[in-house]
Write a structure and sequence with these properties.
heterodimer; A: mainly alpha; two-stranded antiparallel ribbon; 17 helices; B: mainly alpha; Fumarate Reductase Cytochrome B subunit; two-stranded antiparallel sheet; 6 helices; binds protoporphyrin IX containing FE
Chain lengths: ~325, ~200
């Protein structure tokens, strides 16, 4: 308990450097809550992703192999863990669900090994079961996202089985787009969600039943392919942008994907409604009078003009042209 | 015309430079404007426009070396030296001539000769364009071709963004220069006289 108190104060010191009073108040509440929460947890001794070896589930599920006592042969047995059941404990402990323990979602009966076969039949909660219709999650607009997902190609082809977790790994998901101020990190995180299947023969075929298209080949037409892949997300072109959502979830078919350069490479770039939408990124772009500075760790041709400079250049151009015309008139008549 | 004196102002290398430069810069201006305003020209296409801009940029750059080295090793470079004496007075005198004198029968204040190819105002413009604006646009242009070389942020503003703005501003300045350059070139013995000179090399004084 004392340790957490110290920890809280330490965080407080770090964060309080440049935050205003409002946040300070909020932070005090946070410290108080975490104090009670962590306090309670430290007694219940439930979860510890930090130390998987001590964790009843993770001592097996974070390793390539696991050992157990075979009661029938009365011997210690070492087995390979199914690779899809190996969890990344580092990612879990920074993911959105880090404060949950395994048995908050999975049956507590899993704590026994070998696991009972009928446990597999137990339905697990879907995202909306917890996040739907809840005030505290309202800003994430889960219902609206669900409605968009239902319009998407994935849902059309695979139905309900194409759940949120196909892209948003429930164990490790981190809200990178909302929290990171590094554009490239946001892009990378997002694209990895798509690539985890679209660039993985086994997983792609598991869901679709056929081979995955070769991404580099199908995007052959795209100039500077590698640059694009690094600096923009797949969904920039492969979704229908919905203004009310941070991230468009209606992933459209290949034939509807954006193929026109100027959709992004223009002053009213599509990227402004998508990739550059995040508040944290936009804050940086409010700097100075350069109105529509996109937060660029990349240079998007065609998007960098500022209305002020545009107007100024038109005025200068017309003034020069006017000067030339007036001077010509004088030359013609005053000779 | 036969009675007038002729000076060989524009040697072959200079005329070659100037011809390539003129075409290159025109291509850059048109492709540049359509990239900026994202004209979706389905005839030419955005991708082709970008290619035109990049290739023209490289050609103008290589060609600039011709100009730069040519002016270093030949006597032509001398015409670009700016004298400190009458630093402001002389160009103002020329501007006054354009705005007033030439309409009131005053004589040309800086008659051209073997020693003087440009009037002071013209010289200033050429120096600014050829030794500041064009190198600047070349450097920023190459920086945008290799954005990973650019400093990431300058006082919180994206370095790439600043480079892009700077590149456009310089490009715009060169466009305005070109407009004035073309117009002023029509002021001569006859409106076409100077244009003939930059092609033939000979200037009638
Ligand atoms: C359609 C395009 C152009 C035309 C018709 C044109 C025309 C001319 C003419 C007639 C001259 C000789 C008279 C004089 O010195 O004023 C000249 C010289 C010159 N022009 Fe241009 N010009 C064009 C484009 C450009 C551009 C784009 C630049 C630079 C960015 C430029 C830079 C110069 C310079 C520096 C000289 C003097 C060269 C020397 O004698 O050392 N011109 N041009």
């Amino acid at each position: 308990m004392v340790i957490f108190l110290i920890l809280g104060y330490y965080h407080f010191l770090i964060f309080s450097r440049n935050i205003d009073l409002h946040i300070l108040m909020k932070f005090r509440v946070f410290v108080l809550i975490s104090f009670f929460l962590f306090g309670a947890l430290s007694f219940s001794n439930a979860q510890s992703y930090q130390d998987p070896k001590q964790h009843v589930c993770l001592k097996c599920h974070s390793n390539q192999t696991y050992t157990f006592h075979n009661d029938v042969t009365n011997a210690e047995v070492k087995r390979l863990m199914n690779p899809y059941y190996i969890l990344d404990t580092v990612a879990i402990s920074s993911g959105v669900h880090k404060s949950f323990d395994c048995t908050d979602c999975h049956s507590a009966e899993y704590e026994v090994y070998p696991h009972q076969a009928n446990l597999k039949l137990e339905p697990l909660s879907s995202c909306l079961d917890c996040h739907g219709g809840d005030e505290s999650y309202a800003k994430y607009k889960f219902e609206e996202i669900q409605a968009e997902v239902e319009k998407s190609v994935h849902h059309k082809v695979y139905g309900e089985s194409f759940s949120c977790s196909k892209c948003h790994n429930q164990h490790t998901y981190a809200a990178t787009a909302r929290n990171s101020d590094n554009l490239l990190e946001i892009v990378d995180y997002s694209n990895k969600m798509c690539l985890s299947c679209h660039n993985d023969m086994k997983k792609y075929k598991l869901v679709s039943g056929h081979d995955n298209p070769k991404l580099v080949e199908v995007h052959d037409w795209l100039p500077n392919q590698a640059l694009h892949f690094k600096h923009v997300r797949c969904i920039e072109c492969h979704t229908e942008v919905v203004d009310s959502l941070m991230v468009s979830h209606n992933i459209v078919g290949k034939d509807q994907a954006v193929k026109k350069c100027v959709e992004c490479h223009s002053a009213d770039s599509r990227l402004k409604a998508s990739l550059y939408k995040y508040e944290n990124l936009q804050k940086r772009s409010e700097n100075g009078g350069l109105g529509n500075v996109l937060s660029n760790s990349s240079y998007v041709i065609g998007t960098h003009q500022s209305p002020f400079l545009k107007l100024l250049s038109i005025i200068i151009f017309l003034a020069t042209l006017g000067g030339v015309i007036i001077h010509s008139i004088f030359r013609i008549f005053k000779k | 015309m036969g009675a007038t004196e002729k000076i060989y102002f524009y040697p072959v290398w200079l005329r070659i430079w100037h011809g390539i430069n003129a075409i290159g810069i025109l291509l850059l201006i048109f492709s540049g404007i359509s990239m900026q305003s994202s004209l979706d020209n389905s005839v030419i296409g955005f991708n082709l426009i970008i290619n035109i801009h990049n290739y023209a940029g490289v050609i103008v750059t290589l060609n600039y070396l011709l100009f730069f080295i040519g002016n270093l090793v030949t006597k032509n470079g001398r015409y670009y030296f700016i004298k400190m004496k009458g630093f402001l007075k002389r160009p103002i005198k020329q501007a006054y001539y354009y705005a007033w004198g030439m309409f009131h029968g005053e004589s040309y204040p800086f008659p051209l000769s073997e020693k003087r190819k440009f009037n002071p105002l013209q010289k200033y413009f050429y120096v600014i364009v050829m030794y500041l604006a064009v190198p600047g646009v070349i450097i920023t242009g190459f920086a945008l071709l290799f954005p990973e070389l650019i400093i990431e942020t300058v006082y919180g503003i994206s370095g790439i963004f600043l480079t892009a703005i700077f590149h456009s501003v310089l490009g715009f300045f060169i466009s305005i220069f070109l407009l004035i350059h073309l117009y002023v070139a029509t002021i001569g013995k006859s409106p076409t006289e100077n244009f003939k000179s930059i092609i033939s090399g000979w200037h009638h004084v």
